[in-house]
Each structure stands twice: as C-alpha cells, then as structure tokens.
C-alpha cells in the first residue's frame, strides 16, 4: 500500500473501533501531518478516500466529521409506511405530529394533486430515532378521496387507515430525490448539528385505479440514511 492508503486504513480502523465516534471531528490536517510524519498532500489523499467511501464529511471551518457508517437503509422503490419501515430499524423510534390541518386546496395544491376543488389534509410529522429528530415529512392528501382522517391516524399510520379502514388499495408512487438547503423551519424542528443540506424525497402516490391521492415532501438528514434500490437490466 502507498503511504496515504496506510494512513487511510489506520484512520478507518479507529472509526470502526469507535476511537473516533460518529459526530467526532478528526484531528486537523496539521495534527495528522505530525502524527504520521507525512506531507499535507498525503494526508489530504487519505482524507479524500475516507470522504469518497462515506466515512467522513468535510465541514467548512471545522474539519472532518465522522459519519454514521451504519446508516439506515431507506428503500427508493416500493411503497412503505414509516410504521412498516420501523420493523427493520433498531433503537427508539418516535413520530411527532407537528401539524394536522384541513384546508381548501389552493391553486398550487390543486395542481400537485390533480384536483378541481375540495379540501386537503396538511400533515407535518417529525421522525425521531434514538432521540435525534432526523426526518421531516410533510404530507398533502386529497380530502375528496381520503376522508375521516384524524390526528391519531397520522400519529400511528395513515396508510394502515387507508387500506384497512377505507379499503382502498395503494398501488404505486413516483419519486424524485434531490439535495436541498435546510430552511429556517427545518433547522428549528430537526436536530441538524452542523449540516446545512437535507436529502429531499418528493413522492406522488396513487391508488390501484391510478388516482393520485397523496403528495409528500420527506426531508432526511444526510448522515443517517442510505437510499437503496434494486435494478434489473433489460434488453
């Protein structure tokens, strides 16, 4: 191995053995240069390798912060409620309903939900995992289709209510994933640490008859998730 690869491996071993824990900052480049008797270029190559492999994130003015390498797998394909995703997660998981309102659809929501008229449920929920608020979900549901929804359903599982109480079949969704700057509100309700960006998943969900019933904006703190999918090549 080259010298920078050896330094990379030593730093990685310290991350994996929790000598450098998630959220800790690695020693500065100057400190690492003294520790390993190496040039700045060599240290930067080692740090770049840690960055590329998802073990650290560079934070301007602060250095290199250690990321959680055991990120939660969040499926891109398929449709799952958060309650269903909880089954594959470890730790203490909590849903906090920040907003539950029913309002007449404005022009923007009519366009997003393909509605002519009627009411829309606006539901904002914060997801806390092991005491950290790291997901912010904002759901907009067509009140002409989804009726009788309550705050308790939002606290528990909206999809469970739709399928088991309304007997509607949820079939498919269209998703768009982007990275966006965190807003002032995002920073107020989420534990953002030093992060300024969020992974945003916009979803449009449809019933079996291809009726659009829900538009969702789901924001995730970037250090806690990996987005996974399965793809098959066709010719």
Automatic annotation (TrEMBL):
Q: Which CDD domains match?
A: WHTH_GntR
Give the residue spans that cross the bilayer: none
- One MF term in the entry's GO annotations: DNA binding
Q: What range(s) does the HTH gntR-type domain occupy?
A: 1-69
InterPro entries attached here? Bact_HTH_transcr_reg, Chorismate_lyase_/UTRA_dom_sf, TreR, Tscrpt_reg_HTH_GntR, UTRA, WH-like_DNA-bd_sf, WH_DNA-bd_sf
Q: Which UniProt keywords apply?
A: DNA-binding, Repressor, Transcription, Transcription regulation
Q: Which GO terms describe its biological process?
A: negative regulation of DNA-templated transcription
> Would the keyword Iron turn up in this protein's UniProt record?
no
What SMART domains has UniProt attached to this entry?
A: HTH_GNTR, UTRA
UniProt-recorded name of the protein = Trehalose operon repressor
